[in-house]
Amino acid sequence: MTRTDVQKLYSWAGGRWWDPFRAVWELCTSRQAEADLHSLFRRYISPESTILDLGCGTGANLGRLRRLGVPFGHYAGVDFSPTMLALAQKKFGDSPRVTFSEGDATALEDTGARYDVIVATWLLDHLSEPAAFVNDVQRFLTTDGHLLLLFYSQPRWFFDFWLSPLGRLLVRADPVPGREVSRFSGVLTKRSYCAGVATLIDIGASGRADRAEEEVTP
Questions:
Q1: Which helix (H) or strand (E) is 158 found in, with range?
Q2: Structural domains in the chain?
Q3: What is the number of other CB atoms lying within 10 angstroms of the CB of residue 39?
Q4: How would you write the pLDDT of the chain (218 residues) with one tens digit per residue?
Q5: What is the largest CA-CA distance in the chain?
């Protein structure tokens, strides 16, 4: 989908539909993924950590950090929907440790900044070349940083038959196929949920892993 498509979709009804939709989607498909993402936040984020949230939307990941009570040094959220960013700014823009900016997550300018944690939730399923994005964005990590990805993935056929058309209709999302995921470099762990509907991946900046750990959670 194009930049214009995304902006139109997420500006509908002032973008306020997204948070309740996301809550229902995660409740139905990825409750365990949510819990596992929280565990990764606690493991990797310290009071000095710098965080880059790509496709931050209304700031859901920042909301997770606050609910969990996970301290951090600085959080930067990037999204190319001004409507979603306005909602994020309204909810969370009261801290000097938080910044939101409009931009294309697939064409980040290299300012020299490096991040301890980069997170992208429900972003890859909107991209035409997810593997290229994942492998490129790792250059913005610190030497021991982590890239955390939660995305709509290619489910087993009996889910894919009805879920894929619904995803395209409601949020213009296409499941990330396994052949793309297999091209991700530096994968430390990969976990799939709900017959493959959702996938959570932890990537280490060093790119060194003897083999990816794969788990399928019912």
A1: helix 157-171
A2: 3-217 (3.40.50.150)
A3: 11
A4: 555 555 555 554 445 555 565 666 566 667 788 899 999 999 999 999 999 999 998 999 999 999 999 999 999 999 988 888 999 999 897 889 999 999 999 999 999 999 999 999 989 988 889 999 999 999 999 999 999 999 988 755 444 534 444 444 444 568 899 999 999 999 999 999 876 788 999 999 865 444 445 544 54
A5: 47
Compute the CA torsion angle 171, 175, 180, 186 (nearest 10 deg): 80
- Predicted TM-score of the model (pTM): 0.82
Exposure string of 86-103, with b = 16+ CB inside 10 Å and e = fewer, is: bbbbeebeeeeebebeee
Q: What is the DSSP string of 172-188?
A: ---PBPHHHHTT-SSEE
